[in-house]
Amino acid sequence: MIPNLSVNFAGIKLKNPVLTASGTFGYGYELADLIPLEKLGGIVTKTITLEPRAGNLQPRIAEVASGMLNTIGLQNIGVKAFVEEPLEKLNKIGVPVVVSVAGAAVSEYVETVKILGRQNGISAIELNLSCPNLKKKIICHDLLLMQDVIRGVKKVSKVPVIAKLSPLVTDISELALTAQNAGADGVTLANTYPAMAIDIRTFKPKLSTVKGGMSGACVKPMSVRCVYDAYQSVKIPIIGCGGIMTGEDAVEFILAGATVVSVGSSSLVSPGNLIKVIDEIESILRGKNIKSIREVIGSVNTV
Ligand SMILES: Cc1cc2nc3c(=O)[nH]c(=O)nc-3n(C[C@H](O)[C@H](O)[C@H](O)COP(=O)(O)O)c2cc1C
Question: What's the rounded Cα separation, in Å, for the pair 177 and 165?
Fold first, then answer.
């Protein structure tokens, strides 16, 4: 028996539940020579902003035990250039495309999504709500601002809107519920964890911005907990993200309540890991005689 890996996420049909995580796979088409992109459940682009951004100064990446820190600073070519070339190339792959969007103010998110809305071939928008606002505070740390961003984008978007949240909050369920009540069609849990590393030879921080976001295997249990907590309180589907290196990791997130997972740092180690994760999910289900991945969603046995 070949298990059925297909899922429906907020009305989007995916042939399997494995997506790329934003910012770890370029615009999404560049690795076509390295891996069969058409096998992916879907592609989430790096975050796109209204205007091009050069990103932060180097060094922007540092390795830590079982993970990494980054401070890329949303380097991207801006939405107008994105719709001209990368989007066209992405559409040729034939898998659902989720465009990640960020801005420093509501108007920037809304304008960006309006421009994207004139294009075909976008299955969903993922709002990166972990980026700084005009006062350098994380957008989703201000619940009212986060609501305004989601509501504003929902008014102009023709496709489902997914809210990607920062895990650095006291109560992730409250945040997810607020996103749901503002109209989000799904949530992604979670983005990176604020962190810092110091080079003890030079006494200098390992990142140009001193602090950055931590990702990779070391964050998985914290992100699984975010998914589990949010699953208890929201009805909208969840994309589980954080430290997924193997099919076992992906199944863990799905047991906690994720419908779909996204794989980030692991594909920086080797892009082929994305395909391995899909194959491993299939063999785990086959080994347990489970017919469909949908049976697994949220079915962790806590009694
Ligand atoms: C180098 C790098 C760049 C990233 N860029 C973005 C980005 O542009 N937008 C975003 O929402 N998340 C970004 N992330 C966060 C990832 O999408 C993901 O949420 C996080 O890395 C946790 O997953 P992982 O442990 O599988 O990497 C980035 C992560 C890394 C490592």
Answer: 11
CA of 210 to the centre of ligand 1 (A): 18
Range(s) of the domain holding residue 95: 7-57+73-192+224-295
Instruction: Pick the atom of ligand 1 nearest to 216's CA.
Output: 25
- Identify whether 119 is part of a domain: yes
| DSSP helix/strand/coil, 14 | strand
Q: What is the pLDDT of residue 132?
A: 83
Ligand 1 binding pocket mutation candidate from 191, 253, 260, 268 (most atoms within 8 A of CB): 191
Name the residue at shortest CA distance from atom 23 of ligand 1: 242
Q: How many structural domains does the chain have?
A: 1
- Ligand 1 pocket member 273 (CB < 6 A): no
CATH of the domain at 270: 3.20.20.70
pLDDT less than 70: residues of the chain: none
Residue 204 lies in a domain: no
Parallel, antiparallel, or unpaired for β 97-101 and 43-44? Answer: parallel
Q: Is the pTM of this model over 0.85?
A: yes
| C-alpha distance from residue 190 to each of 48, 77, 137, 289 (Å) | 18, 24, 18, 30
* 131: annotated active-site residue: yes
Asked whether residue 266 is assigned to any structural domain, the reply reads yes
DSSP string, 117-142: HTSS---EEEEE-SSB-TTS-BGGGS
- 146 domain-assigned: yes
Q: Which amino acid would we find at residue 78?
A: G
